[in-house]
Amino acid sequence: MLGAIAGDVIGSVYEGNNVRTPHFDPIFHHYARPTDDTVLTCAVAEWLLRGAGDDLPVRLKHWYRQFPFAGYGATFIQWASSISCSPYNSWGNGSAMRASPVGFAFDSLDEVIAQARRSAEVTHSHPEGIKGAEASAACVFLARTGHAKADIRALVEDRFNYDLSRSLDEIRPTYRFDVSCQGSVPQAIVAFLESTGWEDAVRKAVSLGGDSDNIACICGGIAAAYYGGGP
User: What pTM was computed for the model?
Assistant: First the structure.
């Protein structure tokens, strides 16, 4: 979970000012800060620690009220500020960036995927929003339980039908800002697959540009599970 949070913080200064290289310094910029990725990751973690009941909308709204200026999307703000607890059919990557705690909380892949679905569908009830959370949490689970990168790649491609065939060097030149799960989760996973360590993974994720904090958050969570944490 700390790997995801650190990825969010590192990527926060580059979301609107993309850097197209992994060789940026310092890794923690003076203006780097936690964003909504961190806040909602903590909300999901608290939900899990409380027993993963039916109160996730309450937890998300509570954490939003504690940190209302963390950079949430407009639709989430509208939902979190309302009395409604109904989902809004989002396919955005907000479901995936908050899912890393699920990958640590359960002892089987099927249970991780099932609970990732629950963590997503309270807001992101669109099939792509659900799939992004499931894939992100599944990668964390496989990474922390000693599976090889080849196994992680195979599961993501076979079970979630994400295309992981393009390298970062092929993705980077034409990649643009994309907040959808389908347009950012596969890229975050490729950054992890090409990495040699946690820091290298996050640097590679940020180097893609686009929604840098979310991509680095998703990638950082998987990388921390695989490499045993960050430096």
Answer: 0.97
